[in-house]
């Protein structure tokens, strides 16, 4: 249980100033219920705990090192994007993210840094903090609307965290319902809490469903306008529900909640925006952003940041380990598609690889500023179109897709039908669903985590040097593994620290396959 407990009190007592600490420092954090009860005793104080959770989402220091590839949620999604076929890291640089790209991080499971421990500890940190808030629901004082606002967010954070853990540490839900997933904790934990066994994938999704529905119930019963776009409001909760339902293949729910998310977002004047109106994808104030974090100058993580890795013009890591789109995906855009501006096929640094990204840029190079965006409303339109297609409403899906694409390509039209998907993503079925997914691949490149879609779609993929991937990333051995939709390549191994501290998990029985 020790690994899960690590940051629990840090998130509550140091809510807005989480920083990297050694294991010794964390072990001496006082474990008292008094302090946490004070923090969650009223809605007015509990909001600080919620803000601390969001602060964790863009802060380094949730492992004992390697902060250059561990700068919060955006780092985890960048790794997930590089695990797919559309995103190229042209050089190894200092190694950051390159080994995610090569599927060569599982060997790091024995220590408290790197991807196996980092992802596990990150999301269980959010869960541990959220559990203190959800448990205080009945005793928390304050205006009922404010209580609902605070506790509703905690339930949404917990739903999101288990959803992400399920996508990293197990195979996708449909077809693997009875396979082992992750332990479930819904009560506050301390260093003395007994660790739990892994639950099945189906059981974890039952918890996710319960939590997101509870979040919606509470957030719909609040009159509290959210303090900032970092806070999950009802629109974002609906958006998360749509994401969850996509993985569950509950298409009625995808349609319902994507539609609700769009409607709620419009109440905040959030809608699809022309590409020119959100250049750089670096400001949560943009009118298409549903959820993200505003990072001010004194909160930037400088070298250990998303934009340092992405923006080559900064002259740092993004210049030595360039992030590129594959040639084939770029060429799937129409000649007048405004998103072509997100990549530069003429950049002299492209070499034999893909095309340099220009989608993500710093706001200010001198101060290292740039906001992290976690959800845009465009995603909801694409989810809605996919749901309509999967429900047999091709005409509605075409219209939704064309309404979205009117903001991207004035020449766009679509008369495709059907739901067929090819066995691997380099092949074409010609279906409407494939067309919708293609637009997702282009629109959400670099920000969503491509491997999440590949998994739920039950597809495999192959990479090629002709498409711009370096030979190490397009090896025959790697392609043989990733072309199999049942692959364990994209299922992360559980960190050894969890087995060492949890008597109800046995590494000889409960560890995920390494290859």
UniProtKB/TrEMBL annotation:
CDD domains named in the record: SusD
Recorded GO CC terms: cell outer membrane
Annotated localization: Cell outer membrane
PROSITE patterns named in the record: PROKAR_LIPOPROTEIN (PS51257)
Superkingdom of the source species: Bacteria
InterPro entries cross-referenced by the UniProt entry: SusD-like_N (IPR033985), SusD_RagB_dom (IPR012944), TPR-like_helical_dom_sf (IPR011990)
Signal peptide per UniProt: 1-22
Domain SusD-like N-terminal span(s) in chain numbering: 106-244
Residue ranges of every copy of the RagB/SusD domain listed in the record: 363-513
Keyword Membrane: yes
Keyword tags: Cell outer membrane, Membrane, Signal
Listed name of the protein: SusD family protein
């Amino acid at each position: 249980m020790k690994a899960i407990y690590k940051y629990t009190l840090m998130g509550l007592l140091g809510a807005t100033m989480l920083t990297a600490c050694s294991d010794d420092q964390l072990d001496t954090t006082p474990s008292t219920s008094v302090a946490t009860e004070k923090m969650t005793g009223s809605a007015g104080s509990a909001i600080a705990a919620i803000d601390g959770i969001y602060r964790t989402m863009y802060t380094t220091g949730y492992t004992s090192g390697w902060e250059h590839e561990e700068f919060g949620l955006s780092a985890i999604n960048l790794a997930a994007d590089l695990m797919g076929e559309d995103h190229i890291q042209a050089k190894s640089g200092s190694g950051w993210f390159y080994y995610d790209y090569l599927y060569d991080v599982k060997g790091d499971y024995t220590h408290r840094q790197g991807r196996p421990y980092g992802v596990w500890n990150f999301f269980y940190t959010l869960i541990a903090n959220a559990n203190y808030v959800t448990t205080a629901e009945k005793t928390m004082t304050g205006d009922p609307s404010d209580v609902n606002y605070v506790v509703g967010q905690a339930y949404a954070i917990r739903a999101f965290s288990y959803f992400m853990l399920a996508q990293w540490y197990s195979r996708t839900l449909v077809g693997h319902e009875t396979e082992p997933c992750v332990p479930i904790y819904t009560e506050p934990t301390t260093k003395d809490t007994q660790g739990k066994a892994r639950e099945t994938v189906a059981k974890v999704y039952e918890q996710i469903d319960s939590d997101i529905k509870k979040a919606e119930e509470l957030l719909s019963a609040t009159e509290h306008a959210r303090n900032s776009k970092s806070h999950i409001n009802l629109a974002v909760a609906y958006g998360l529900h749509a994401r969850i339902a996509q993985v569950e293949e509950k298409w009625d729910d995808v349609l319902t909640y994507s539609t609700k998310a769009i409607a709620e977002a419009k109440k905040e004047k959030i809608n699809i925006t022309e590409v020119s109106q959100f250049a750089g994808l670096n400001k949560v104030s943009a009118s298409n952003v549903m959820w993200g974090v505003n990072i001010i100058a004194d909160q930037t993580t400088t070298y250990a940041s998303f934009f340092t890795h992405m923006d080559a013009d900064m002259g740092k890591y993004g210049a030595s380990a360039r992030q590129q789109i594959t040639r084939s995906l770029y060429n799937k855009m129409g000649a007048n598609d405004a998103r072509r501006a997100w990549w530069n096929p003429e950049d002299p640094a492209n070499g034999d690889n893909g095309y340099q990204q220009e989608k993500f840029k710093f706001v200010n190079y001198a101060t290292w500023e740039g906001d992290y965006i976690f959800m845009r409303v465009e995603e909801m339109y694409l989810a809605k179109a996919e749901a309509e297609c999967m429900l047999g409403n091709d005409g509605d899906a075409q219209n939704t897709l064309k309404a979205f694409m009117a903001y991207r390509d004035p020449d766009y039209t679509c008369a495709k039908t059907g739901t067929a998907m090819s066995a691997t993503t380099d092949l074409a079925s010609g279906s409407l669903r494939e067309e919708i997914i293609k637009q997702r691949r282009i629109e959400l490149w670099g920000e969503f985590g491509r491997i999440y879609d590949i998994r739920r779609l039950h597809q495999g993929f192959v990479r090629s040097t002709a498409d711009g991937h370096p030979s190490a990333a397009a090896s025959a051995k790697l392609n043989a593994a990733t072309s199999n939709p049942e692959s364990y390549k994209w299922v992360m191994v559980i960190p050894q620290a969890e087995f060492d501290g949890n008597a109800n998990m046995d590494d000889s029985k409960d560890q995920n396959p390494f290859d």
